[in-house]
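Dear Dr. H.,

I hope your travels went smoothly. While you were away I took the liberty of generating a structure for the chain from your last submission, since the lab meeting agenda had it listed for discussion. I wanted you to have the full record in hand beforehand rather than looking at slides cold. The sequence, exactly as received, is reproduced here:
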Amino acid sequence: MTAAPARYRGVVFDFDGTLLDSMPLVLEGMADVVSAYRPRPDRGEVMASLGGPSEECLRRLLGGEKHVAAALARYVAFFTEHDELSRLFRGARPLLDALRRRGVHLGLWTGRERSLTSARLRGLRLEGHFEALVCGDDLASHKPDPAGLLHIVDAWGCRRGEVLFVGDSDQDFEGGTAAGVPLVAIRHDRMVSPALLAGAVAVVATPAAAYARVRRAVLGAPARRR
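The corresponding predicted structure, in token form, is as follows:
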């Protein structure tokens, strides 16, 4: 393998909304299951609840412990039934393949439970692509606490400035900044507080634009049109 440029030795990705076009499914599932116990939350409220495993997100939406267990069971059933509908964003697989060919460390830091993460990676034929994987129920702390991201960086023996983190949620932005890891922030179609982007080396509107930034920064190559 050809060595990657010295500045960036690894890339850590968030999963939902960054590599996987699944956020509509996440938002619909969360809103649907909690609406049995409270008025249905809008998209903004659900987005603000994300970070950590599904149980924590549901607890925030429900305002406490009551109904969390039942809502979680409903949400896992919803996701198990519908998750195969989610697909990688265009350009994600070619980017991951290109990074692997160049010997770049690849990591995944996600709020998803490990069981749901592993199942979807198998469905996408991506099992084994990531050298390091930290899921929402792996550690005592969750996004935006940077412990999961720092665990990956430390496991690779890298300095924080040698790893890029790519994410799309406020929790990703806050976690990447707190970790001191250079951040490629995908804002999609929403406004983001400048304070959350203090650690960003690039702020882009779409995953495709983020992949292009990663290619240039890590591989020194222009984005491929596929």
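Two observations you may find useful: The chain is about 40% helix and 15% strand. The domain at 10-22+87-219 is CATH 3.40.50.1000 (Rossmann fold).

With kind regards,
E. W.
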